[in-house]
Structure formats: C-alpha cells, structure tokens
Amino acid sequence: MILKNIEKPYVIAEIGANHNGDVNLAKEMIKTAKECGADAVKFQHFDVSNLCTADNLNDLDSGVVKLENVDDFSTPELGLNNVREQIIAFSFSEEEMTDVRNYAKSIDIDFGCTTEDAEGVRFLQKLDVDFIKLSSADVNNISLIEAASLSKYPILLSTGMADLAEIDAAFRILKKVESSNFALLHCVSIYPPSEDIVNLNFIDTLNMLFDCPIGYSDHTLDYSITLAAIAKGVNIIEKHFTLDKNMPGWDHKVSADPNDLKIICSEGARIH
Asked: Structure pTM?
C-alpha cells in the first residue's frame, strides 16, 4: 500500500482493545467492519510491561491519578477490578494476534496494528501487517519511530500529544528512509474531545508544513466530525469501532457502531 496513492477515503476500523480479549469477538468485529465497507481493521499490540510503568499503574489503580471521562476502571461484568487487570485481560498474545491477522487476510480486509516498542515492530514484520500505527503518545519516542521507519512498512503516526516541533522531528526521522511511505494523522487525544477543540483546520497546517499524506484519527462521538474531516480532503480516516457502545471496556462508548461505520464509509465516499 502506497499511502500517497490513496484516491478515496481509506477507512480504518480501530478495533484496538474493544475485543475485550476475546478472539471470537475480534473475528466477528473484523467481519462486520468488512461488511460495513471499511478498508482496514487495526489492533493494538501491548502488554502490562510496555504500556505503563509500574508506578503509573499503581497510581491509576489507587485512584491517585484519574483519566478524563473515566470514573471507574472496574468492569465487574468481566470480573476485572482495575486498569492493571484490564490491560492483562484485553491484550492478545502473539498467537492470538496471528490468528486474527490470518482471519482478516482470509476475508480480504487490510490489517494494521499499533505497537509500543522495537520488539513489537519486529513482531509486526513477522506478522506481515499492511501498516504499522504509532500512537500520539509516541511522537517523541525516537527509538520506536526509527525502528518502525526501518521496517519498510507503511507507517501512520498520530500527532495528538505533540507540538509542531515534535511533529517535525518525527517527520524528519521518517523522511530519512529512502522511498519513505508514511502519513501523519491529526488527532485530539481526549476520549471523547468536545467538538470545539477538535480544530480540523490543523489539517490545513499539517498539509502546508509536511510533504506527506495527512489523515485524521477521530475520538469524537458519532460520525459528523469524521465526515467533516473527509470534506477537508483527508484520505485516511481512523475511527474506533465496536459492535455495541454499551459493552464494558475502555473505548466502546467513544466508538462507531456498525450503523455509524456504514455511514462513514458510504457518505465519506460521496463527500470525497
């Protein structure tokens, strides 16, 4: 996949951890995303050792640190009492990730994945993903960006936690690789952000400053802002996806359900 050659909105259904650690649910989500018209699904490759420090987990579990829009990390419906238990339960082993990757390939939908470290990049190379995603939290993770850039896989980098200087530094690393194939995604790293801080005009800024494709990773509720971003001209859309917004877990409430995703895919193609 050459990111510069995308001519219509390339819609990524971000399954992330919304599979809640269940491989069968993940496969059902992949199948449904395909039926809705999505071009790709994306997962997250992480574990309790590389996602948070032990001190950060202790602070989250004790309530010393709270995250916006998250009042309680317990999910009694799933028998989980805190964020540490959720990270363990919601992560896939390499064998499980390989299983869902193979399923996506069998029904002809692209498969991408976020990773947190260079070891994860090596695993994604072995998995032969269609693209590697780097999260907003890793815009200044130089070693990870360098490892991903050397993988020769397409790279999507979200920019939601970075200033322009940090985005520029990451851009320069990615641009060093001959025949570089990457895109920057405008993003607001709040779940969900209020619509008055989404600032889709920043897409114009990114287009003006950086010689690469620009996309949008959306955490807003519903689909209106997603379609507005497509109207701004982005050709890459990432949207969290769930089968049911009322399911227990991290991101279900800020995700598109099948009806939302169908609208994003069909109306996005019309708008573009």
From this structure: 0.94
